[in-house]
Prior knowledge:
Elements: H1 2-47, E1 50-54, H2 57-68, H3 72-86, H4 91-107, H5 112-120, H6 128-136, H7 139-145, H8 153-175, H9 178-200, H10 207-214, E2 222-228, E3 236-238, E4 242-246, H11 251-262, H12 273-279, H13 286-294, H14 304-324, H15 330-336, H16 343-354, H17 364-373, H18 381-391
Parallel strand pairs: 1-2, 2-4
Antiparallel strand pairs: 3-4
Amino acid sequence: MRFFDALPRFSLIITFCCLILLILILTGHFWAVTYKESNQEEIRIHYLTDWQVEPSLKYDTLCFLNTLTADSFYLKHYQSEFEEFEKRLKKPVKKALSSLKRKIKDEKRGIISAFLCLYFSAVDDKTIDDMLKTIQNSESMKKNLKKTPYYTDSGWRLYESVRNDLKTVLIFLKETQFESYWKKYILPIVNETIRQIREELPKYDITGEVEAHLGFKLPSHKITAYILYFSKPHGIKIKGTRYLTNVAWPTEVVLRNAIHEMMHSPFDLVSDKELKKVIYLLKKDEFLMDKVMNHNPSYGYNSFEAFIEEDCVQALEQIINERLNIEVEAHKRWQEADEGMHVFAVVLYTLMKKKRFNQKGEKFRDFLIRMIRSGELAPGRIKIIYDNFYSQST
């Protein structure tokens, strides 16, 4: 009888335990779902590219300096705009423009617009007056640049050497009402392009693709594209996840520019001693070095390090472009781009396809080292791979 007397009490205990178990299961499910949704939200936020598209008087002004120097490389794009201001150029301004070109392009083999836009991206100037104040006192620019990978003592010395020339030219542009000219004739064209592009860019998430192929995170998921009028033929990376592109280029090109510029630099050649040592082995390849030394310097990439970095980025960009279906066919691209100088991009792209780069999450830096050390990029191999690439396209 005692056994049966205990049954109601036992049933209550079982029921209570079942209730507790059910609560734990439901609570656990709630937290699991919450955790899962939280993680998905973190991933979604991290990989969702936040596109910002803007005009910029500052950067367009600095890019216009290429043309004002009367450099034929830029006059083919902006002859009529040059003529509009050329007739008002006085001797001191012409002398300053000549000095800018000589010091930055002729002697340092740089690009005036790329150099100055990068430096002025370290300050928040908006107008010509703002830039003149920065030229007068450049300490904030220097301080901010030192926080980035772009500062070098030699680069700062170059900036200091052209400050007076730049001041002379900007005063000329101020006196000739360039700002009003830009707002009246250039800005409406830029704004119309921006209106069209803003509708298309949010369809593309590029930050996740770039990070996956590089093997490290970008500083931000916010990417700012400055649409300029006077920037042709260059796409230009500036401080942060920002870049300069051109009003004449369609959305696909603006996208390709974004992918490309966000991958500069794909490695740290300054502090990565192992990588630097391995990459310098490529200097033994005569075919490659002929392109490094003898390409048209107006396109930039005039040091061995800059040339290799650019071609690495071009190869990476092509892989991502193909994944997003916005590519130019690879054979056509490198035959036509920059007078065919990017032979290392062709070879690296070929190896990336052949070796199925990034299938196992290998960092690009590690892949490049592996290709060089394995002999895939041994002296003499680059021309063989390059020739095979184009023989297969015919």
